[in-house]
Amino acid sequence: MAVVEASNLVREYRMGTETVRALDGASLTLDGGQFVSVVGPSGAGKSTLLHIIGALDTPTSGTIRVDGTDLTALGDDEASEFRRNRVGFIFQFFNLVPTLTAWENVALPMLLDSRSFTKAKPRAVELLERVGLGARVDHRPAELSGGQMQRVAIARSLIMGPKILLADEPTGNLDSKTGADVLELLAEVAHDEPDRLVLMVTHDNNAAAVCDRIVTVRDGRIDERDA
Ligand SMILES: Nc1ncnc2c1ncn2[C@@H]1O[C@H](COP(=O)(O)OP(=O)(O)OP(=O)(O)O)[C@@H](O)[C@H]1O
Fold it and tell me: Can you give the pTM of this predicted structure?
């Protein structure tokens, strides 16, 4: 089943009197059960594409459906609910809350929802075990290595059970061995469930090489061979 269906996406930014076209008619269909990387030159529109797929930004024109939801039809509150419950985000600098322990960081999205409050800790601990950090649940980010922090962030991205994980340069701040381990984990996460998609923006050719599919963005469009 298609998790992402993007058609003719255009995203323009106004810069004073100039208009920058970050996306210029990008079309793409992505199925679940895959680990997909997005590559291309600097300024090609990769991050803009990822932000639109994650409902962090809206296109100027074009259509975008993610996990069956038409993102262009969402209001601000619906978009933030979509981001919280239906998408997992993984960032280069991990974005963990320094004052919270590993399990509290992972549980945060569930702790914010009164309906799931009591289930939050057992689920967070289970996910930390899944990413190999069962012995680190009470550690704070400063007491963890970079690779361990990224594993916590991956566990957090999974807690609401999203169909899609979006990773922006997830290995950009890790050494090559630690980065390779994180990529292996992301591939496992994509293949764990039949229709989960992990979509990763990367500049690292080794990272792209372990993916099931590589999508190239150039001048705001998806390379035709990749669409
Ligand atoms: N908020 C913004 N305001 C104005 N212009 C923007 C904004 N965001 C992106 N752009 C412009 O849109 C184009 C695409 O940017 P984007 O960040 O999507 O590229 P990228 O492929 O992710 O680049 P990089 O690999 O360097 O991160 C660039 O020319 C950029 O300067």
Answer: 0.94
